[in-house]
Amino acid sequence: MPTLIKVRVNLLIFPLFAFIRRAFPFILGSMQTSKLKKSNVARLSSKLPLALAREVLLIEAHEVEALANRLDDSFTRAVTLILQCRGRVVVSGMGKSGHIGGKIASTLASTGTPAFFMHPGEASHGDLGMITSEDVVIALSNSGESDELLALMPFLKRMGTKIIGISGNPASALAQKSDAHLDAQVSQEACPLGLSPTASTTAMLALGDALAVTVLDQRGFSAEDFARSHPGGGLGRRLLVHVRDIMRQGAAIPSVPLNASLSEGLLEMSRKGLGMTAIVDDSGKPLGIFTDGDLRRAFENKVNVMTTAIADVMHANPRSISPDQLAVEAVEIMEQYKINGLLVVGPQGSLVGALNMHDLLIAKVV
């Protein structure tokens, strides 16, 4: 081979060999890393999904149970601080703790304690103006060393705002700066890697619920009070809607006098569209009721509609309800006696309204 060609080949081959020598450790390392990843996946995938899910739930249940055994006077102090608060409860936390804090604030607000969530990052850029000396701050951090939260402490201390800390480290900076500290530490996370906040966030959430429910009980907060915070929900409708709110009134009430004929009663039923009519005396007190069901039975018995008096086929002493009763009580009466309508009777015994199951359905009480 000519010398010039040998030189050119060497110039190409030697750099190639050098590159392979340099790259080999990297390639080998990549192969080892890939093997490690595959082994981790194999290890994590070695458990059946249901078995792993049950293990997660049992770990979290165990950690929450351990919280109950660690509760002490700090919890009582935290409850007292909230009960004595003349302002609002401000909940704050970063990351996953922040998400838990949002739920705690929502639970407090819906159970009689004015509360809202404030992001600690935004707090340092102006939102601290929402906090006053009359407020109580609940600060959440698993480590208790969250920079964003700790940066707020000097400001809160200068204002005299009380601080309830919830963290997994009783010796943390947050714990030391809190007027009451709740220990939310867990022995292990439910995450197989031990990295993702799982049992620790569940512990925080459970402590927040315990705080809200205890404060609720101490305030004497009732189901009616709860409904006032939830007027758009099913509970609100069941506990806030009264019979007077949905009953037919005035000219919309189907009624005929005691001396009316059955045909007159049928015309009244048809005009008012409730599937019934009340039979009243001269003072307006209901003496009986005639319904669609009564009409079918009258036809079965071959009753003459034109000549029969409605008093002869009516039901005396009809079921009734007060206008001040809850609409849900009307549902209970109708279901108990298997009827579709009710007369509404006032304090003096006079007929003041009427309603049927369709009215309750429209009001979404049923």
Task: Give structural notes.
- The protein has two domains: 52-221, Glucose-6-phosphate isomerase like protein, domain 1 (Rossmann fold, 3-Layer(aba) Sandwich); 243-362, Roll (CBS-domain).
- It contains 16 helices and twelve strands.
- The protein has helices at residues 3-44, 49-70, 73-83, 95-110, 120-123, 147-150, 153-159, 173-177, 199-219, 223-228, 234-240, 243-246, 262-272, 292-300, 327-337, 357-362, and strands spanning 89-93, 115-117, 136-141, 162-167, 180-183, 255-257, 276-280, 286-291, 315-316, 320-321, 341-345, 351-356.
- Helix 3 (73-83) crosses helix 9 and helix 4 packs parallel to helix 9.
- The protein is elongated and about 90 Å long.
- Mean pLDDT is 86; it is low at 3-9, 26-30 and 36-42.
Short characterization:
The protein has 366 residues and is of the alpha/beta class.
Topology of this structure?
Elements: H1 3-44, H2 49-70, H3 73-83, E1 89-93, H4 95-110, E2 115-117, H5 120-123, E3 136-141, H6 147-150, H7 153-159, E4 162-167, H8 173-177, E5 180-183, H9 199-219, H10 223-228, H11 234-240, H12 243-246, E6 255-257, H13 262-272, E7 276-280, E8 286-291, H14 292-300, E9 315-316, E10 320-321, H15 327-337, E11 341-345, E12 351-356, H16 357-362
Parallel strand pairs: 1-2, 1-3, 3-4, 4-5, 6-7, 10-11
Antiparallel strand pairs: 7-8, 8-9, 11-12
The helix content is: 40-55%
Mean pLDDT: 86
How much β-strand is present in the residues? 5-15%
Largest sheet, in brief, is: 5 strands, parallel
Report the count of strand segments.
12
Order of neighbouring strands in the sheet with most strands: 2-1-3-4-5
User: What is the CATH topology descriptor of the largest domain?
Assistant: Rossmann fold
* Corresponding CATH superfamily of the largest domain: Glucose-6-phosphate isomerase like protein, domain 1
Please identify the structural class as seen in this structure. alpha/beta
Order of helices and strands: HHHEHEHEHHEHEHHHHEHEEHEEHEEH
In terms of quaternary structure, what is this?
single chain
Shape: elongated
Q: In the residues, how many domains can be counted?
A: 2
Radius of gyration over C-alpha positions, nearest whole angstrom: 37 Å
